[in-house]
Design goal:
By secondary structure, the chain is of the alpha/beta class. It has 7 helices and 9 strands, in the order βαβαβαβαβαββαββα. The structure holds ligand NHR and glycinamide ribonucleotide.
């Protein structure tokens, strides 16, 4: 069985969806850069080890990433899962976890990278929005795409109402993508292509 480590910065609802999906993985730890992250107490209540590495205690991104890497690697994970993690990583960190670092981003990438994605979508007037699971690369929010889900944008949407509709889809596709990884069906090729074994069978109607 594969071992995963989940990184959070806040509420941790995606982390919770992953825990509650009862995937065939060992969730070794939940690590946050924010001591007050709400998701930490949930993880503790489930008997999952937690750790806090506060980025404000480090002089540079590089030293923070090195400390985080050391904490993560003590758990020997096969996969590191970003679930609402809010700090950009250095190239050294990303390269160390090449092919085993996943993120969920709240937009249909390549549209709306960065922050405040729901505000960006409403401002652009798109009629379809959504979320994307991708492998993390040095170029933020541009890594190879693993899965996406779309939702309609409604005329009276606010950033909050749209975020809630997208979040419900995040809670579906992120556990699914991690299940593929757990079952050895999801790989990143050396040239940066995503392979999902039996993808065609999955999508037969
Ligand atoms: N790191 C790299 N190198 N590549 C990616 O694709 C990454 C990454 C780190 C995090 C998640 C991402 C998202 O899904 C992610 C992808 C934070 C920021 C950001 O600007 C941007 C993208 C993402 C996460 N963070 C600010 C920073 O200075 C801090 C913002 C805050 O603390 O609120 O790091 O959107
Ligand atoms: C989620 O919508 C996630 O996609 C997004 O933050 C939310 C975290 O919620 N991630 C980012 O914006 C990364 N920059 P959660 O803590 O309840 O999972």
């Amino acid at each position: 069985m594969k071992t995963i480590v989940i990184l959070i910065s806040g509420r941790g609802s995606n982390m919770r969806a992953i825990v509650e999906a009862n995937l065939p993985v060992h969730i070794a730890a939940v690590i946050s850069n924010q001591a007050e992250a709400g998701g930490l107490s949930y993880a503790q209540s489930k008997g999952i080890a937690t750790a806090v590495i506060d980025h404000r205690g480090y002089a540079s991104r590089g030293t923070f990433d090195a400390a985080l890497m050391q904490t993560i690697d003590a758990f020997n994970p096969d996969l590191v899962v970003l679930a609402g993690f809010m700090r950009i990583f250095t190239e050294g960190f990303v390269n160390h976890y090449q092919g085993r670092l996943l993120n969920i981003h709240p937009s249909l990438l390549p549209a709306f990278p960065g922050l405040a994605t729901h505000e960006q979508a409403l401002k652009a007037g798109v009629k379809i929005h959504g979320c994307t699971v991708h492998f993390v690369t040095a170029q933020v929010d541009h890594g190879p795409i693993v899965a996406q889900a779309a939702v309609p944008v409604k005329a009276d949407d606010t950033p909050a109402s749209l975020a809630a509709r997208v979040l419900a889809q995040e809670h579906q596709i992120y556990p699914q993508a991690i299940r593929w990884f757990a079952e050895d069906r999801l790989t990143l090729t050396p040239d940066g292509h995503v392979n999902v074994k039996d993808w065609e069978t999955l999508n037969e109607s």
